[in-house]
Amino acid sequence: MNDRASVAATLENSPFFMPFSMNRQFKKHPRLLARAEGMYYYTPEGRKILDGTAGLWCVNAGHCRKKIVDAVARGVATLDFAPPFQMGHPLAFEFAERIAPLLPKGITRMFFTNSGSESVDTALKLALAYHRVRGEGHRMRLIGREKGYHGVNFGGTAVGGIVGNRKIFGALVTGVDHIRHTHDLAKNAFSRGQPKHGAELAEDLERLCQLHDPSTIAAMIVEPVACSAGVFVPPLGYLQKLREICDRHGILLIFDEVINAWGRLGKPFAADYFGVIPDLITTAKGITNGTVPMGAVFMKEDLYQAFMTGPENSIEMPHGYTYSAHPVACAAGLGTMDVYEEEGLLTRVGELAQYWEDAAHSLRDCPNVIDIRNLGLIAAIELAPRAGAPGARGFEAHLKAFEQGAYIRTTGDILAFSPPLIIQKSEIDQLFGTAREVLKTVA
Ligand code: PXG
Ligand code: PLP
């Protein structure tokens, strides 16, 4: 046993309170990852695990890419930290210039954060402040959607729509409401790509406008493809309708692209894929290939300009983090953009998506499968829950897949697949082949 394997044997009383984990189950039966390269993780014992989840939807260029590792090493040795308030460093400006040409049309400015959760709370605060500086401070309400995931800070938890993530945290933020989710197995099960039914569900936003009066609503936030809660692909025409309703009522539309951005759908951003341009975009994860924590909020020019109207000797936006535009994160981001560009990763999924879709849907005949859905390089297989034990079948599938050499994420009884964008067709076969073997055994 090497050192790391012996660590695994002694976790039961570890002081580490693991995030979003079954701490007691894990500490009894640890699943540790010690090393990674390309498409694979390696366990402390040296087992090779195909990464079917790009880490946690973030390692889009694959693991330990030399260019990114070198950029981080050089970056940290050159400038370990620089204060971000009233001071700056060249990499922050360079990184912003590097990203700007990739942004959807009309989106021109960006604010840096350290995570998706911080990006969401930053975007919500920007939306409220934008209306306020324009004299529309009565727009105080924030609208989310059922089953939405917008991170774990207070704003994101409040606009989020996953009940289990909300219920033990009190009243959260006031003035928040939610439109209905779009998950409809009766009409859309086994849809390939965007489901045909459900565009009209966007009208639920109009209903909330009538309930609260649109003049009280600041912003609506949605994930174009909702990933965390179980992969819900927007019905055809749905996002267009949301855009129309927001336009009609002066409501800002925020796309939460923490997962959707950076090539996952075959375009740099989901906004490009769907042809719907929001007012703000939140992101994180793939912005640095997951190597160093970083997030960003992108916004239209007029949002930025609305803040640039007061006296020049005042701080335009009293918001920011100690680590906003951290120099090592910017270095990682620049290295990441190099790899994305050199390998065409922001558009590669366009060539793979059909193969991916066919491979995912080939599991339709497996036991207990009640739906398969997909878009870009994302897929989900929904299993029927065991009677009286929701989530048990899904979790067992996750454990068995790990034993059989594939890392597959599950939420409840939904298996989610989102590998690095460098995946080869043979590895797609391997991933779904393992899933097929696993599904045979989780009765
Ligand atoms: N918005 C969206 C749409 C996300 O997917 C966040 C915000 C929060 O980002 P941070 O960096 O604060 O975690 C996310 C993150 C899962 C899973 O299992 C997904 C996320 C995070 C953890 C687990 O699907 N998405
Ligand atoms: N709490 C205290 C006491 C602080 O001093 C700071 C930052 O200076 C924060 C919270 C916020 O930390 P961060 O900027 O890393 O989000």
How would you sum up this structure, described in words?
Strand 14 and strand 15 form a beta hairpin. With 443 residues, the protein is of the alpha/beta class. The radius of gyration is 22 Å and the shape is globular. The chain folds into 2 domains: 128 residues, Aspartate Aminotransferase, domain 1 (Alpha-Beta Complex); 275 residues, Type I PLP-dependent aspartate aminotransferase-like (Major domain) (Aspartate Aminotransferase, domain 2, 3-Layer(aba) Sandwich). The mean pLDDT is 97. Helix 4 runs antiparallel to helix 14, helix 5 packs parallel to helix 14 and helix 15 runs parallel beside helix 17. The chain is built from 17 helices and 15 strands. The strands form 3 sheets. The chain has a 7-stranded mixed beta sheet with strand order 4-10-9-8-7-5-6, sandwiched between helices. Strands 1-2-3-13 form a 4-stranded mixed beta sheet. Bound molecules: 3-[O-phosphonopyridoxyl]--amino-benzoic acid (PXG) and pyridoxal-5'-phosphate. Pyridoxal-5'-phosphate (PLP) binds next to loops. 3-[O-phosphonopyridoxyl]--amino-benzoic acid binds next to helix 3 and helix 6.
